[in-house]
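Can anyone check this?
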Amino acid sequence: MQHTKLNGFTLLELLIVVAIMGILASIALPAYQNSVLRSARAEAKTELLQVASDQERHFSNFNTYVDDATPLNTPVVAGRDRTTQNAFYAISVAACAGGAITNCFLATATAQNDQTADACTTLTVSNTGARGATGDTTNECWQR
């Protein structure tokens, strides 16, 4: 009786490969998700700084800030908000605590949709350039 050798993988070999793939996926997926959250946060920081720049330009021309987060080179309609390009943060502008919108503002980016899973749920910047955040420390949110 002649034995022929069968080609293929044993069950043990397949189980080892599946286990290795599971371990790699459990490491790679959270790192990828964290990277996506950080990139959306960077987009929100850019938008906030643009809003602050628009507000300062408006203040230098009219000696007042406005509660308008839209680009101020368009006709001003008070109370308008805007979102980041991918709609992960809503941007708004209001008078700073204890002040009037005519002499101080606080621009706020609030996480929405999938971005609410981020540690930094709210980012702020004021007319003095002071930065703030909720959910994590301000330094962590603005440096990463």
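Reply from J.R.: I decoded it. The beta strands are 82-83, 89-94, 106-111, 122-126, 131-134.
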